[in-house]
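Internal QA ticket QA-208
Title: Verify multi-chain structure generation after dependency bump
Assignee: T.L.

Test input:
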Amino acid sequence: DTGVSQDPRHKITKRGQNVTFRCDPISEHNRLYWYRQTLGQGPEFLTYFQNEAQLEKSRLLSDRFSAERPKGSFSTLEIQRTEQGDSAMYLCASSPLHAEYEQYFGPGTRLTVT
Amino acid sequence: GNSVTQMEGPVTLSEEAFLTINCTYTATGYPSLFWYVQYPGEGLQLLLKATKADDKGSNKGFEATYRKETTSFHLEKGSVQVSDSAVYFCALPSGAGSYQLTFGKGTKLSVIP
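Actual output:
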C-alpha cells in the first residue's frame, strides 16, 4: 500500500498562469476527493469523483478550476488564470467504496501565486 | 449544511499530561463523527470515528464519545507523548447524501518533554 501521492509537492507560479496538479489515489479506492486548505483552517471540499464520474462540486470551485479523473484512476486539478487568492495547500484524498468517510489523504501540493 | 466548532489552539502540554480538545457540532440527524490528525509534514490521517450516539471511538490511546445531548465529540487522551504533537481536526459529513467532509479549523498540539 503506497498511499495517496500528489505531484508536485510545491508549485510557485505567477498570477495569470495556469497550473495543473496530479493525484494518484490508493489503487483499489473508487472515490477521490479534492480539498483546499489555507493557513489556520481545516480542509475545504472542492470536488469528488466516483470512478471517472465527477459527482459533487463545491461552489468554491469557480469556472477557473477544472478536475478530471480519466479512466477512474489518477486525477488532475487545473487552475486557469491563477490569482493570489488561489495560494493554498491542495489536498487529494481517496476512500474505498463502502467506507466513504474514511478518507486517506495525500501530502498535498502547496501552491504559491506571486 | 452540517458544521463543526472546534477548540482553538495552540495547546501546549507537558509529556504525560491529560489532553482534551473540544468539538461541538450542528447537524441534521445523527451523522458519523471523526477526528483526523495531521503530523508535521504528513497528510491527514483518520484517528478515530463514531457512527452513532453514545459510541466511543478509540485509537492510539485517544478516545472520543459521541454525545447527542450536548452535540459534542471531545477528543481525550490520558497521557500525551511528544510524538502526539500534531494538528487535530474534528469532522463530519457535510449533509445527508453527501460524501464530502466538513472540518473544524484544527487544534495544534505541542507536547514538550
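Spot checks passed. Chain B is about 0% helix and 50% strand.
Status: verified.
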